[in-house]
Amino acid sequence: MALLALTTSAFSQQYLTREATLSFDAGSPLEDIYAVSESASAVYDAATGKLGVQVLMTSFQFKRALMQEHFNENYAESEKFPKAQFTGVFQGGEAIGQLTIHGQTKDIAVPCEILEADGSLILNAEFPVNIEEFGIAIPGAVADKIAKDAKVQVKATLKKRA
Amino acid sequence: MQIKKTLFSVVLSLQLITAVGQEDDLFSLMDIPETTEFTYATFKGTRIINAQSNETPGKGVLQYVISHRFGSFSNDYLYNFLGLDIAQIRMQLDYGVTDRLNIGIGRSSFNKVADGFIKYRLLRQTSGAEEFPFGLTLYSSTNYRGARYTDGVDHFLSDRLSFHHQAIFARKFDESFSLLVAPSAVHWNLVPGPNDPNTTFHLQIGGRYKITNRLALTGEYNYGSNYEYSDGQRFYAPFALGVDLETGGHVFQFHISNTNAMSDPLWVATNPYNPLDGSLFLGFNISRVFTVRD
Question: Rounded to whole angstroms, how far apart are CA atoms B108 and B268?
């Protein structure tokens, strides 16, 4: 009986990755602003539906070094706010919970899909993030170049925790 | 039977406890371990004002810098339209070969100096998992004086050459405050007299303090080992105070200093202006970067 109880431990319901791809596109016809991180992490508990995604701001790679520097220095303020994260639940095709960017937390509910494939879970989500809602100021001089809503895309393959 | 029942409930409750624990721990599982990060933007520009900063443009970035130094406050300032009529100009074009290596050329109106320089980030400050406390950038320039000599002597090409070598130690203390110390050496192939040193040593100190993300105060001071020469020339330690304003691809630097030369050895080693005489100059540097290779 005890053995049986141990084998059905909640452990086996947890899925994790540290190599999730998280990208955003805040570009405009005037400027190509796209960055991708290949080292975001994501966790999901299939038993409870809890879902979490985290990314280090400095892990975003831009094509242009200067743009990356400006992103970290002037917009994301990565030294003050090193991480962005989502914590919440996956429920009925939506990720519902709190999104924290630039030290500010907002409730969100965005479309999300989690598919099972070969014992792993594949997570896909794409949603807009209003940059100014998270207290990231965009100066007038570059307002035309930066999209008001950044298109965020998350792609992750989560492996079952041993 | 009783024992078995107790054991069962103990196991069950233990399992519940661990399950609850895991609930709370789920989000801590995703905590990304600290990585080692290169410190970025110790200074906004590749120069603080006149002095080189530790920064170089990124790989594949072409930088164009245009600089002006207006006429001195002590030199008929209003007649010269706030010094604009007697402004000195410098143009510079440089390129980031790699994220560490930077090469460039420049032309300055004062003494008609053409120069070439090479700048290399040998060490970079890092934070996070592996911390390294400072960055070290090496800088070297060769300068060719194009201005005619008035001493009536035929001069070799080599007479016209001068050099400036620096080791720039820089540290970004926090988000706002950065400081650099740069021991440097200036070498002139030609000096006024046989007893004058061809090589002088200098120590540059510079800093910046960020007021907002795009606005910073800057300052620099340059101490030199020899300011008096046998022909009676007397030179002064140059200093400058400025404001950095950054807007996307441009950095605007506005400043006041006691020197109007911009090519290396001239402003470093042979600045004839004494600020106490009112010899202060307004000036600006504007840089524009172009990413020519992604």
Answer: 14
CB contact under 8 A, B22 and A11: yes
Q: Is A36 on the interface with B (CB under 8 A)?
A: no
B214/A74 CB distance under 8 A: yes
Q: Is the Cβ of A39 closer than 8 Å to some Cβ of chain B?
A: yes
CATH for the B43-291 domain, from 1.10.3720.10, 2.40.160.40, 2.60.120.1680, 1.10.260.40: 2.40.160.40
Q: Chain B window 58-117: which residues touch A at a Cβ cutoff of 8 Å?
A: 58-59, 61, 99
pLDDT band at B33 (very low <50, low <70, confident <90, very high): confident
List the domain boundaries for chain A.
Answer: 14-160
Q: How confident is the model at residue B104 (pLDDT cuts 50, 70, 90)?
A: very high
- Sort B267 into a burial class: Cβ within 10 Å, 0-12 / 13-18 / 19+: buried
Beta bridge partner(s), residue A45: A14
* Residue B15 confidence (pLDDT) above 60: no
CB contact under 8 A, B247 and A72: no
pLDDT band at A8 (very low <50, low <70, confident <90, very high): very low
pTM: 0.85
Between B21 and A63, the higher pLDDT residue? A63
pLDDT (0 to 100) of residue B275 = 93
Enumerate the residues of chain A whose CB falls inside 8 A of the CB of residue B294. 63-64
Chain B hits for A77, CB-CB cut-off 8 Å, are 175, 213
Please check whether the domain covering A14-160 is classified as CATH 2.40.128.110: yes
**Burial profile B17-34: b = 16 or more Cβ within 10 angstroms, e = fewer:** eeeeebeeebbebbebee
> What is the phi-psi region of residue B260: left when phi exceeds 0, alpha when psi lies from -120 to 50, beta otherwise?
alpha
Chain B interface test: which of A6, A73, A78, A138 (most B C-beta within 10 Å): A73
Start-to-end Cα distance in chain B:
74
For the cut 90, the answer to whether the pLDDT of residue B186 exceeds it is yes
